[in-house]
Amino acid sequence: MHLTWLDSNSWLIEIAGKRILLDPWLVGSLMFGNAAWFFKSERVTPREIPENIDLILLSQGLPDHAHPATLKQLDHQIPVVGSPSAAKIVREIGYTQVTALAHGEVFRIADLLEIRAVLGSPTGPNVFENGYILKDLVEGTSIYYEPHGYHAEAIQEFAPIDVVITPTIDLKLPLIGTVIKGQQGAVQVAKWLKPQVMLPTAAGGDLAYSGFLLNILKSEGTIDSLRSLFTANNISTQVIEPKPWERFEVKLQKLAVA
């Protein structure tokens, strides 16, 4: 298993011999509703779009997960798996092989890879997006991804999971409260899934931010404080801070079967 963090929520996952682009934002700027005055994020360093992609996987229909400019530039023949809201967006852009996954549904690539949609984060009244469990059906290794730190209790039935990709810091807004549940969410999911490795997502990277939102958005927690929480809770999970756009191998221990 190899992973490359492409900044923000974007990842290149290499598992079961497949190259999967997860929530890709790879070109242009990131805004919500084209309101640059409110929030805008831009790349500090121009990057080349990864090649030979087998699948695009989208957890949400929001621009920081289903980034319109990126999706317009990628090959529309690449198969896409996404939440219903994300699937709607890529169909409108012109993708021809689109699978919408409801919570609990599974997408398979032959006998190589299984992608299971699980309950993810709320994005509106009675609207919940997707988290995913990816399992290499040959090696037996697995990844769990949820980009806002909203972890459903039901995922415990799939434990243990080898790698968890989730936020590790809290982001809060006045009157609204916590919009990204990092520290305690990471502790909870580590207790539930008992991963060997946890990787942070959703914040940082080789990016520059601007806009009014930065004045009211409050960030709490660090990787070091999370490691301290893990120690206090007797959690042995290793927290790895990936460097943007640097491919690395996730080295997992082979656990003995009882």
Can you give keywords for this protein?
single chain, 258 residues, alpha/beta, Metallo-beta-lactamase, Chain A, seven-stranded mixed β-sheet, 5 helices, 19 strands, globular
How would you describe what is shown here?
- The strands form four sheets. Strands 7-6-5-3-2-1-19 form a seven-stranded mixed β-sheet, covered by helices on one side. Strands 8-9-10-11-12-15-18 form a seven-stranded mixed β-sheet.
- Helix 3 (183-193) crosses helix 5 (223-232).
- It has helices at residues 68-73, 84-93, 183-193, 213-216, 223-232, and strands spanning 2-5, 11-15, 18-22, 40-43, 55-58, 80-82, 98-100, 106-109, 113-124, 127-136, 142-145, 163-166, 170-173, 177-180, 197-200, 207-210, 218-220, 238-239, 248-249.
- It has a single domain (2-243), classed as Metallo-beta-lactamase, Chain A (4-Layer Sandwich), CATH 3.60.15.10.
- It is globular and about 45 Å long.
- The protein is an alpha/beta fold and 258 residues long.
- The mean pLDDT is 91.
- 38% of the residues are buried.
- The two termini are 24 Å apart.
- The chain is built from five helices and 19 strands.
